């Protein structure tokens, strides 16, 4: 009985470049993608291993292999995985170290290994045995709930690593290296961030994804140069030395003296950009408050330290994800208050739960929806699960009591003025004085004037607004050229939203909290269109501030006009960047 509880006890306790020459056929070869995070970096490539394929259902022991031999092979593989993860945890830090330590402990857990050996004795191959045994353990942890349920995915990670070891192929996830490298992958999932060490991974390049993909968001949050949708980069060999320009979206194999000079210049400029004085302004003194997007108290503390003038987007999903049940009001109050306390006397804009689409919740959303991006998500979950939103608003109001932060609250996925009016009434009932809505659906941009009759502000979520306006999934690499906020059609929707904020006698603020605000060149255009505030990852604040300070408001308005009247997103970006020489000077 004691052994059957080993893995549970383990989890409970854990809670408390050298140059490689390029092939002659590759030297000088360039790859074009979409730059999503600026920086000029030279380094060796390491490829992200392919995902481990599930062993065939019913796969049996190979002919001539005894169950004893297969069981010994399994034990050896499990021990090898444990050793590798333990070694990696020693050089890791923070959350990454905790994940690696917990995963290492469970890799050779007696209960897991014993369950797999039993299946091998019954004739299963070691790969199939560990696959099924881990599935059973993960289900058990999931049913326990709380911290244990959160660790179920770690068991499945161990499973993939052991299968890879048995097959003699690279383990899934971020590759390990003693020296810094440029990570090349098809795309990255949010879970990959736990073991991504920015001290070792110096740039990201993917063959898939788009400007708003997980990889792009990860790169901007970590301040890593990144290029996405670079078709063909997956064919590069490990160790190939490349130059990555995260602003231009280019990759060059075996860079020369010119690229070395650019990389050195970037080091100098990035050091100069490390400080933001806490006031966003144009050259003529026009103020543009620069806020930060955060996902919890830890993010908020970092944003405050970086000089953010407030929070333009508090993603409240961090309280709800990886849970089977709705968090209590008390749990939510504690989580939100940590963010509010980081910004006394400053604005904190709270986005209510944006569940659905790529953020499903078992107690709130329907995973069987045929098209979840156009389904019951964000504010719409109140249609099918009334009460969750009202309890969240009550928690936000309670968390705001006694703090000095100016708490605003907004709903995602608002499509009509009627919905905005209903949300405002819920805010009023909860005692929240400043309601607003996200403009992500084109209909909201087109009817901004009517919507603003009922709420006090709007904030443009350019990620989804672009996706919906262009009918292009933001995760799909082949559609990356469509899925950019530089599209003139998207900029027209921004303009219409700003115009609507001045109609009908009201003059209410329009902000941008989508990833577009973190692009220094696009930030100038947005201000020229009349956007009042910009919210971004804390790492982007200094770069955006530096570029905004190089132009006057009339100049920004002229650049906005150029972008609006361009024939394509590519032309819009090129025309604006040509008028902003500071971008090249700073390597942005």
3D architecture notes:
It is globular, with a radius of gyration of 25 Å. By secondary structure, the chain is α/β, with parallel strands linked by helices. The termini are far apart. The chain has three domains: 29-50 and 174-255, Phosphohistidine domain (Glucose Oxidase, domain 1); 67-167, Orthogonal Bundle (Enzyme I, Chain A, domain 2), CATH 1.10.274; 274-586, Alpha-Beta Barrel (TIM Barrel), CATH 3.20.20. The protein has helices at residues 6-15, 67-91, 94-107, 110-121, 126-144, 146-150, 152-167, 214-222, 257-272, 297-305, 329-340, 381-384, 388-400, 417-430, 442-446, 448-451, 462-470, 488-502, 520-528, 541-548, 553-564, 569-578, 582-586; strands at 30-32, 34-37, 40-47, 181-185, 201-206, 226-228, 241-245, 250-253, 290-294, 310-315, 347-351, 406-411, 435-439, 457-460, 510-512, 533-536. The model is unreliable at 1-21 (pLDDT under 50). Helix content is 43%, strand content 13%. The strands form two sheets. The protein has an eight-stranded mixed beta sheet. Its cofactor is Mg(2+). Phosphoenolpyruvate binds at residues 315, 351, 463-464, 474.
